[in-house]
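Can't paste images in this forum, so I'm doing it all in text. The chain is below; anyone willing to post the predicted structure tokens underneath?
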Amino acid sequence: MVTARRLPVPLAWALLQGVLLVLALMSVLWNVVALVLLLLPAARGQRIGRAAIARGYAIFWRVAGASGLLQMHADALDPLADEAGLIIVANHPSMLDAVMLVSHLPRSACIMKASLMRNPLLGPGARLARYIRNDNGVAMVRAAVQDLRTGGQIVWFPEGTRTTSPPLNPLRPGCTTVARLAQAPIQALLIETDSPYLGKGWPLWRLPPLPIVFRVRLGRRFAPADDAAALLAEIEAHLRMELRRPVASAKGESQGLGPKAVQ
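Text version of the structure:
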């Protein structure tokens, strides 16, 4: 593995751009294939589409880790990989958040911006995997409920955009309504990093301090509730509290907060 701190700045910059180029090329190639696979029956296409995206993202993280520039610690997600009918909500510090989570969650669908679904270089793969558009609230809720009832998972960033007011933007409604309608639990996740890389306003070409380290840990598990607004406020308070805790302390105390800790 390359030691990132010892690399000359021009070489580190070029290597980081090369890692991102790998991700971009993989995405383009897969979307070309996905365009043909859209002819498959919906259920089979969804299964293949989600598994392929997860596998591709996992390959990207292996390349990124070998470069020494990007490190992801997300083994806490592994117990969730095969759990059906689960909503996974997380904070959203970076453009790489979905790439991290989906790489460990091959059953999952993302809530995506409609503009990305229409993008010819990104849209075919997302449509094949039956990811869910966010441009129509009623349609989004219906699609998410149906996905959960048929054994899927939903990855949801309820801030609605990358974090601009650390530690967390106010959460937008939606996930707790879907939880109530689908009677699906909500698993909170904490994405932690001390790097500003690919946060809101950080351009791709700007080199951050290296290495860039991301950690994902499990928060509380929330049962669906009739009062969706109150549940959303409770989830927001939990995320805010946990994100303010020192990482070392949080790692030591989070072992019992996973799938069985339904509140």
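Confidence is low (pLDDT under 50) at residues 249-257, 259-263. The radius of gyration is 18 Å.
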